[in-house]
Prior knowledge:
A: mainly beta, five-stranded antiparallel sheet, globular, B: mainly beta, four-stranded antiparallel sheet, 53% strand
Amino acid sequence: GENVEQHPSTLSVQEGDSAVIKCTYSDSASNYFPWYKQELGKGPQLIIDIRSNVGEKKDQRIAVTLNKTAKHFSLHITETQPEDSAVYFCATLSTSYGKLTFGQGTILTVHP
Amino acid sequence: DSGVTQTPKHLITATGQRVTLRCSPRSGDLSVYWYQQSLDQGLQFLIQYYNGEERAKGNILERFSAQQFPDLHSELNLSSLELGDSALYFCASSSSPGQTYEQYFGPGTRLTVT
């Protein structure tokens, strides 16, 4: 089955710095790559996603890049703010099935 | 707020018991997914329903079952509970497989088995 590796497991940055989280996947049939943000006591919130026919997508301070050849994708957060502190999960989906396969999560802490 | 609702928010029960978790998808969404989140296993897909029919199964134990009703709400039934079943259980919904990929998660049910 699909395997998704996410790094780093924890990331600590100063407010205003950039943060980058990387994921690699194994299933070449994966064609949808979402990122979720989970705050304490809440469910995962979809923050950005990318499909396999696109190499990069940006939404304000958040961007995602995809390298299908190398089977990896990354989340970039610029000008980080304390409210960006949360657990971030990458995931992949092969549209042959509806299920998402998640990475292990990254705990991001943004220090004021 | 994703528009997906789950009840109850918290559930505390004893080993050997049976519980039912409930999920209402976003308005218009036909597909419901159940996920389990635990510290050691992370977020794991359990099962998917689309318009009342089971679509896909993941690592769901035989002690667990689910269904989706005509009004599209879904229930996850967990029986013969064990300590290791303590986890967060999330429901997600999407409009239609193949038409949209986005899955929106509910706030979850925290199950504690004592």
